[in-house]
From TrEMBL:
Organism field: Phytophthora nicotianae
InterPro entries: Kinase-like_dom_sf
Name of this chain's protein: Protein kinase domain-containing protein
Amino acid sequence: EFNTVKTVGCLGVLRSWKMDTQLSAVTLDLLSKMLEFDPVKRLQTMREVLNHPALFAASRQANDAEVER
């Protein structure tokens, strides 16, 4: 329920599900910013999401995998 996210935040929900250790810190940051209750703090556009370091890291890993082939 979104009220739980509103109360404890995305990271709190992931901790309660014991999933916070399954994701990198940068990925957790992206999820938290995308699911932020306060619209002023939330990522507002796809450009902001795409420019987040988590997606740069994922893109770099994909490119490195292509080079290794």
